[in-house]
Amino acid sequence: MTKEKHNELKKVAYKVRQHIIHMSTDGGCFIGASLSCVDIIVYLYLSFLNINKNNLKSPDRDYLFLSKGHDVPALYGTLAEIGLLQKSRLKNHLKTNDFIYWHPNTNIPGIEFHSGSLGHLLSVAMGVAYDCKLKKQKNKIVVILGDGELNEGSVWEAFLVAASLKLDNLIVIVDRNKFQANIETEKLNKLEPLSDKLKSFGWSVRKINGHIFTEIDGLFSQLSVHSGKPMFIIADTIRGKGLPSIEERADRWFVNFTKEEVESLLHELKTREMSKLTSETLMVR
Amino acid sequence: MNYEEILEKLVKNNERIMVMTAENRAAIRNLPGKIGGRFIDTGITEMTLIGMASGLALRGRIPVAHALASFLTMRAFEFARTDVGIANLPVKLVGGFSGILSDGNGPTHQAIEDVSIMRGIPNMKVFCPADEDDMLICLEKVLLSESPYYIRYNNRKPEYKHSEDFEEGKAEIIEIGKDINILTYGALFNEAYNAYKRLKESGYNAGLINMRTLKPIDENIIVDSLTNCRLTVSIEDHFLKGGLYSIIAETALKHNVMGKVIPFAFDEKWFKPALLNDVLVHEKLTPEAISERIINEYFKIKKNNGK
Asked: Which of the residue ranges A27-31, B173-177, B221-225 would you say has the lowest mean pLDDT?
């Protein structure tokens, strides 16, 4: 990866994190899970996926499906930075005059399918992947799953089927931030050894640090799709990445901050100086 | 042409049609070898079946997805609602062995709430053919519709020659009665038909209506029956709540009409699992039992009206 590209990725990821912080007030958002997948989403749109303003309806475009829909602020922010979504619309977060709410929907240019209920978009993406293969097209179909989402049985059903159908144009990325809503994943339903599980299901498995662009690029620029097996990428991430006062805190997964706290968090993003936060996590689930 | 021959023809003439199953091949046994990659068996995975069907529809396909009615509509209900329904995709969900057609399987397989829950999904239409002929007459139009559809697969042998004219939301009117009108759909059509014939033989001015689509519903025929006929009868292999009887009540309220209605349905109970003919006898759904109960009810009305 060139130095220029690396700097661009870092700059865009920083701006997306700012957008997420701005969306964490006036109703709030799922800030922790959004911050953990920012770097992956930014990388995919800027360096991997063939998705742009001019090919959104083209059958040859690549597809991204955000299955763990509650991290959609990261996607809104990225779509705004790459020009698919007007930046001014981000101010409409949770307003009735727009469609910028807590879960993805297709009124947003670039969002392929709605999600919010966990465990759906892997199978939806498989339908798309199957059709692309049947038509001998070379599109890449990427699905982002949450690690908490791996509790859902429908995901494991789909893992089984995708391998049997040899959907090797399908790339699943797990945002492995090691938390689900209120608790660490390993303290509830143990997922580890996760890569062994997927290998035994017949998937190709890779592991990366989901915040280091050179490492992400090292994998994706060399990725051999069309190998007969679907690809499962475990992206090791940190929930709340970029804000030390939120990072890896079980109680900071959905927060509605005050305006002052937002200012303080924007400062924290720049300096890593811890903010003094008093707003409590809302238990919406 | 039988069911799978029609599907094969549609697949060959229309590149949008895909045939899918969650390893329920009863109706499509011979298709896999004939249509190549246009046939997908996901295994016993109703959720993945419907999710994948939605993805195929996103790419412009019209997937016709088969599974046992109770698992298709209930185990995977949220996939039908959330993926097919919200996105309003032209996925066709074909439920096999619904209602009394599950005969000896027992309550786990008795989809007798399927109409109720599927019609509750915005955009989802519901087609319940009376028998194999009725299903085949209407099939092509239903499958080529741009709407999501739930289809109650019904391969019972026909005893009546159905009208070739099919339009969704339009019932097939066999006859409109002045004394008694039977409104029915699905697998109990033959019993309803023979009960209707018995009523006529006994001198009643009786009618019979095959609803065909439960959503959209033919409101006119319901209003007409409630308004102009002394006794309306609903016959369905479905729970009393949520099916045709409920639809009649909803329609009556909407149009502010009233009429006497006698339901044949399963009221807060599963039916006795057995071979189909024995189920009908046990549940008092033979033509004899149906016509006898209708005549008794009709007498009560006449007696009350006479007072």
From this structure: A27-31
Distance from C-alpha of A4 to C-alpha of A14, rounded to nearest angstrom: 15
Using DSSP's 3-state secondary structure scheme, residue A20 falls into helix
Q: With an 8 Å Cβ cutoff, is B77 touching chain A?
A: no
Tokens, residue B59 = 């790419």
Q: Which of A60, A62, A64, A123 to mutate to test the interface with B (most CBs of B within 10 A)?
A: A123
Cβ contact A37:A237 at 8 Å: yes
Q: Are residues B145 and B224 in the same domain?
A: no
Identify whether residues B127 and B183 lie together within a single domain.
Answer: no
Mention every residue, 6+ apart, whose C-beta is less than 8 A from residue B261.
Answer: B226, B231, B232, B233, B234, B245, B248, B249
Chain B residues near residue A161 by CB distance under 8 angstroms? 42-43, 45, 48, 52
Closest approach of B246 to chain A, Cα-based (Å): 30
Answer yes or no: do B263 and B293 share one domain.
Answer: yes
pLDDT of the residue at A282: 59
- Integer Cα distance of B212 and A11 in angstroms: 60
Q: What is the pLDDT of residues B71-126, one digit of tens each?
A: 999 999 999 999 999 999 999 999 999 999 999 999 999 999 999 999 999 999 99
Choose the closest CB to A120 out of B37, B51, B59.
Answer: B51
The model's pLDDT over A174-223, given as tens digits with 9 standing for 90+, comes to 999 999 988 999 999 999 999 999 999 999 999 999 999 999 999 999 98
- Tell whether B80 is within 8 A of chain A (Cβ): no
Contact list, B58 vs chain A (CB under 8 Å): 112-113, 124, 127-128
Which of B123, B152, B181 is the C-terminal boundary of a domain? B152
Cβ-based contacts under 8 A for chains A and B: 86
Q: Which CATH class is domain A3-271?
A: alpha beta
Considering the domain architecture, whether residues B148 and B180 belong to the same structural domain is answered as: no
- A157: chain B residues, CB-CB within 8 Å: 45, 47-48
CB-based burial label for A263 (10 Å; 0-12, 13-18, 19+)? middle
Query: In which domain, by residue range, is B84 found?
Result: 3-152
Judge whether B164 lies within some domain: no
Query: In one letter, which amino acid is A192?
Result: E
Residues B137 and B194 in one domain: no
Is residue B101 domain-shared with residue B45, that is, in the same domain? yes
The answer to whether B56 contacts A158, with C-beta atoms less than 8 Å apart, is no
Do B243 and B126 have their domain in common? Answer: no
- Mark yes or no for CB contact B79/A154 under 8 Å: yes
Phi, then psi, of B207 in degrees rounded to 5: -130, 165
- Asked whether residue B131 is assigned to any structural domain, the reply reads yes
Model pTM? 0.96
Chain B contacts of A112, Cβ < 8 Å? 58
Q: Tell whether B157 is covered by a domain.
A: no
**Cα nearest neighbour of B75 on chain A:** A154
Decide if B43 and A128 are in contact by the 8 Å CB cutoff.
Answer: no
- Residues in chain A with CB shorter than 8 Å from the CB of B62 are none
CA dist., res. B9 & res. B152, Å (int): 21
Q: Looking at the structure, do residues B137 and B242 belong to the same domain, yes or no?
A: no
CB-based contact B47 A130, cutoff 8 Å? no
Query: Is residue B167 in a domain?
Result: no
Look at chain B and report how many structural domains it folds into: 2
